[in-house]
C-alpha cells in the first residue's frame, strides 16, 4: 500500500523524508498529466491529418471519374459536354490573344477607391505599400490593378526556366518559406520577423500559397509584387494547390469570385495560366534542392537534364534509358494519367495543338499503349523540345507529379502514394542515391503540416518546412521558415500567429478546443457513412441485439472509415452512453448525430458524404465561374453524379432537391446556397457556419463585405 | 513523415498473450528486487485482457513516430503515463536496465517487449489517489489552514525528487496562486485530477 506521510507539527518544518516524497508525488502526477495531454494532442492531429489526406484522395478519385467519363461517353452525350471544357485544348492559344482577353485598360477605378493605385514598373515602395494596405487597412486591391499585376507576372514567369538556379554570394542569407495556404497573418509575421524581400534578402516560397485560408488572393498579390520588383531575389515554386481544379474544391476559386464579383472569372483564368508557368523547383548553390513535394526514383532522369542545361536553353534531352523498365511508367498509379491531362502539363503554351483532349490509354497487360500517346502533340509542344521520345515524355510527366505530391517515408524504396492519390512515398535510400547522383547535400520541401513547423528526416538530408501556423486549428502547430547562408547550414525560425502564448493553461485550452473541433469533424464523417457503418455493425451483431463490444465496434468503424485512427481511445468522446456491461448501443449512437430536415436518409447521407465532390462538380459545370448553374445543367449534374456514385437518383428526387432551394436570377441555382443544405446538426453542438474542413475554408466570406464596384 | 495510416506497414497484430479473461488489474506483487539487479522481464507474467491489450496497442501506435512498430526507450515512461500509470523516471530506467543517454535516444522496443515492462509497473505498489496528493501537499501547510506557499512549492519541486525545470513548474502552477502567493491545495488537487 502507499506509504503514508508522517504528520508533522504544524509549526515545525516538514521533515526531509516527507518533503522528498511529496515532491516526487507531485512531479509524478505532473509528468503523467503531460503525457496524457501529449497523447490527446497526437490523436487530434491524426484526425485532422487523416481527413485532410482523404480529402485529397477524393479529389484524385474525382479526376479519375472525369477521365473515365471522357473515355467512355460519346462526345455528344450530355454528361461529357458538361465537363469537356476542362479538357479542351482548342481555346485561344496564342499569348497575344490572351493578353487582349485579360486587358485591364478599360476597367475604371472610381475616385472613391482608397486602396493602392499601382504604377508599372512596380517599385519597392509600392510593394511595401501593398503589404501595408493589406495588413493595416485591410483593403482590397482593385481588379484593374489585380489584372495588370497578374499580366506582368505572367509575362515574367514565361521567361523563367523550370528550375531556378540561385546563388548565395558574399554574406547573403536565403530565406525559404513553406506552405502558406491563404494565411496572410503568417506571411506578415514572417516579413515582420525577417524583413520583406529585397536585394539583400532573397526568398524562396515553396508552393501552396492558396486554398483553405481566407486571404489567398492577398498572398499571391504580395508575392507577385515582390517577384516583379526583385525578379532575381524572389523565387516561387509551384505547389500541388497551384492548380485550378484543386482550387475548385479547396476554396480559392470561391474566394476570388467572392472578392471580385465582376472580374473574378478573368482573374481566375489568368491565374490558371500563371500557375502552370510557375517554376517547379529551385537549386541553391548547386547543393540544396528546394521543391514542394519531393522526389522519386524516376526524377533522377528529369533533374539530370535540367541541372545540366543552361537556364534558357531548350536543349535536346539525352535519351532516358530506363523509361521502359521503370515500373511506374509501365504501370502508372491510377490517378496519374487523368491528373496530368488536367493541369500539370502546360509548362509552355500549346501551339495550335490537336483539339482532342489528351488521351492516355488505360494500361493493358501492364503496358501503356504508346500508340495512343501519338496524340500527345500538345505535350510535345508543352515540353518545348521536339527531341523527346514519348516514353521520355511520360517519365517526365511522372516526375512533375512526383515533384509536387510526394512524401518521404521511413522505409527504403519508392511506392505510389495512395493516401494522396498522386506522387509517391520515397525512402532514405532514394534520397541517398539522388543526392549523390546530382552532387547535392540537402532537400528542402513542404507539403506536410508539422507540429513544430519543420521536421528533418532521412538522416537530416530532407527538411520539411511548413509556414502556415495554426493550420488545423488555433494552436495546432507552429509555422517555420529556414535561413541558409553561404555555409548552407539550415537555421530554422519558428513562430505562431496567435496572441496565445504557449503556457500550460494555453496548452490545455488548445488541446481541449482543438480536440473538440477535431471530434466535431470526425462525427460529421461518421454520420455521413451511417449506412455503411450500420451494415458493418450488423455483421458483428448477428443476434441483432443492437449492442457491440468495444473491440468489434472499433474494428467495424475502421473497416468503413479507413482513417487509421485510434478508435478505442476516441470512443469515449464519440459515443455518449454505453450500457452497464461496457457494450455500445450503436443504434442510439446515430440519434446523436442528426442532419436537419432529413427526409430521404440514404440519398441525403450519400450526398452529404460526397458534398465536397458535389460542390467541385458544380463548379466545374459552372463554366464561366458565375456561381450559378442553370436548372438543366443542375439536372445533368445529378445524372453525372448518379453514375459516379453508382446509385440511382431519380428525377423526382432531383425535383425535390431543387424545390428546397431558393432560386433567384431567372431560375438559376446558386451553388453556395445549395451547398448550405448540407450542414450537420450535432445535438451536442451546432457546427459553426462556414468553418468546415471540407468546404471552402474561408469562414465568413460574407463578413468581408466586398466593394461591389471592385 | 508519411502519416501513420499506411498500407506498407500494417501494425502487426500479434496473438494476444494467453490471459485469463476475468482478471482486470492483477493484485500487487511484491516490490521488485533491490536496485543493483536489473529487472528480469522475461520472468514477468503478462496478464492483460484482450481489451486492455488493444487499448495499449493503440496508445503504443500513437507514439511510434517512425512507423517501424516500435518506440524509443525515452518514450516508454510517457506511454505508461498516458495509460494511467505513474512510474518515476528512476523506475523506468531500472526496467530498461539503466541505459546510457545514447541508448535512451536510439534503442527501440516492440509492443511485445513493452508489455512486460508495463506489467511490472502496474504490479508495483505505488498507487496514489486524491487523498495521497492532498496529504503530500499538506506536508507544506505550515499554518494548517489549507494553503501552501507557492514559492516554497517551487523550491521543493525544483530541488527535490525528480526535479522539474522552471518552465514545467510555471506550467504546473499557472493560475493557481492567489494574490498572496498561496495555493489552496485541495482545490489544486481537484483541478489537476480533473483534466
From TrEMBL, chain A:
Organism classification: Eukaryota, Metazoa, Chordata, Craniata, Vertebrata
Q: What is this protein called?
A: Serine/threonine-protein phosphatase with EF-hands
Its EC number is: 3.1.3.16
Name the species this protein comes from: Hippocampus comes
EF-hand domain location: 528-563, 609-644, 649-684
Tell me the protein family, please.
Belongs to the PPP phosphatase family.
**Which GO BP terms sit in this record?**
detection of stimulus involved in sensory perception; negative regulation of MAPK cascade
Supply the alphabetized keyword list. Calcium, Hydrolase, Manganese, Metal-binding, Repeat
Give the catalysed reaction(s), semicolon-separated: O-phospho-L-threonyl-[protein] + H2O = L-threonyl-[protein] + phosphate; O-phospho-L-seryl-[protein] + H2O = L-seryl-[protein] + phosphate
Does the record carry Zinc-finger as a key word? Answer: no
Q: Which Pfam families match?
A: EF-hand_7 (PF13499), Metallophos (PF00149), PPP5 (PF08321)
Gene3D superfamilies for this protein: 3.60.21.10, EF-hand (1.10.238.10)
Look up the record and name the cofactor or cofactors this protein needs: Mn(2+)
- Is Lipoprotein one of the keywords? no
An MF annotation (GO) of this entry? calcium ion binding
Q: What class does this enzyme belong to in the EC scheme?
A: hydrolase
